[in-house]
Design brief:
mainly alpha; 5 helices; YqfX-like
Length: 123
Amino acid sequence: MSKKKSNKANKPDWNRKDEERRRQGLDDDAEFASEVAPFPAAPVKTEDDAGQVGNELETTRVLGWVALIAAIVSLFFLPTVLGPAAAVLGFITFLQGNRTMGAWSIVLGLASLFVALFLGPYY
């Protein structure tokens, strides 16, 4: 009769590897996602910003209005220049948290660019 071969030789010995890591001082299971992740789109409050209340919101609001005005003006004047500018400013506004105004700026800016490039030659 034949003896069964054990599969122990084929499987990695995780306990042995864990012991090796502990011996080398690598036993911490800390995440490193913060080192790998991209920078946050929204501003992060730090201790240095404790005295500055409301600056980020005001800047986002002003940038959103500039983007929306550029998008509306692009419907009537220089759509190939102001349309993409409004879309880029709207995207930045969208990332900073003012999503409604950013989305409207993106849509209007790209719509005016589309009309100017694809429908404009027919008139």
